[in-house]
Structures are given as C-alpha cells and as structure tokens.
Amino acid sequence: MAEQRPLMYSEKDIEVIKGTFADNEALLISIRKLFYGQDITKEEKDLIKSTFSNPEVVEVFRRKVYPVQDFNRGLIAFNDFWLDAETQIFGSSRDTVYQTIESKKLIKDMFEKAFNLLTNPDGEKVSIEYEPMIEADPLGIKLIARNLYIRAIQTALITVQAIAGRKDESPEQATKRLMQDSSK
User: Fold this and answer.
1) Which residues have C-beta within 8 Å of that of residue 183, sequence separation ≥ 6?
2) Region of residue 113 (phi > 0: left; psi between -120 and 50: alpha; otherwise: beta)
3) Within a domain: 5
4) Residue 125, SS3 per DSSP
5) 115 pLDDT band (50/70/90 cuts)?
6) How many domains, the chain?
C-alpha cells in the first residue's frame, strides 16, 4: 500500500480557500491586477480590503503565494523563501550566483509590497514594467526578478482557484462521475 503524505494545506486551509475564492475568479483577477501594479476600481479595492480584513484569509493566501518561515506548521508544511536557492548557485559562476541572489532579493521586496496592498490597495505599487537597459543591468537581474515574480503570482492564483473549485469526492465517485460524463 502506498504511503500517504500529509497535505501542504490543512483541511481548515482548504475550507478558507474554498469559502473565500470558490466561484470568485473576479476577485483573483483583481488581486492579479493589484499585484502587477495595474489600476483597479473602487469596487475592486473595497472587495480586496473586505476579503483580506480576515487575518486567517491573509495567512492562508500568503502561505500559497509567498512562503515564509512558520515554525508552528507541520514538519512537511515548513517553507522558507530562500530554500532551494543553493541549488541554483552551487558550483555556478560568480555572475549566476549574483543573478540568483539579487533577483530573489528583488522578488522578496515585490512580494512584501504586494501583500501590503491587500490591506491598503492605495499603498506603494509593484511595477512589472520593464525597459531593457543593458548598461544599467548587464546581467538582466531586473528582468529575471520581474518574470519570476509574474510566474509565481500566476501559478499561485491558478492553484488557489483550483483548490477553491476542487470537488470533495472519493476516487470511486470521481471515476463514476467521469464515466457518466463520457457517456453523454
């Protein structure tokens, strides 16, 4: 029998995600716009502020988007922003080490600004604008940070949407449902 691994999210986390984000793609799109430095309407700001006035929602969402140390989480759920950076730099050239560390520093700053916007959408915005300036950034650190940040936000929002829309059914129920769907 295969060993069952604990989930990265507790049932309570999944409940919070479903209760907040299920059938609410408009909220996720508004968050994406806010995190990418785009203008949002007053209604979108109000929705974001009311959603993230609940500290539990902020914490569950933050853990998915921006991993920070939490020594109270289960052993398998522990995460840290800087983990795995060593795999990118071990044995690499000085330029690669510099690119990795400096781009991660920029991404960390972007995440921190973005999360401040959840409770204050009029705060300092994150900019994903990019104008190539090889002389000022010969190693492309700003481009690397920008693209990794965009990818991380997009992946996290899609994951939250998938968790929020997940149907609670057994494998047998899923198989039966899929067989019924395919016979239509």
Assistant:
1) none
2) alpha
3) no
4) coil
5) very high
6) 1
Q: How much is the pLDDT for 11?
A: 83
Position 1 in a domain: no
Is residue 184 pLDDT above 80, yes or no? no
Tokens of 6: 């604990």
Look-up: residue for tokens 């899923």?
A: 174
Give the length of the chain.
Answer: 184
User: Which residues, at least 6 apart from 126, have a Cβ–Cβ distance to it below 8 Å?
Assistant: 35, 36, 37, 110, 113, 114, 117, 149
SS3 39: coil
The verdict on residue 3 lying in a domain is no
Residue 6 lies in a domain: no
Instruction: State which residues form the domain around 114.
Output: 11-182
- Report whether 181 contacts 36 (CB < 8 A): no
Of the ranges 41-50, 80-89, 117-126, 167-176, which one carries the lowest mean pLDDT score?
167-176
pTM over 0.90: no
- Residue 145 CA to residue 38 CA, distance in Å, equals 18
> What are the distances in angstroms from CA 19 to CA 50, 147, 157, 164, 170?
14, 30, 15, 8, 21
- Report which DSSP code applies to 159: H
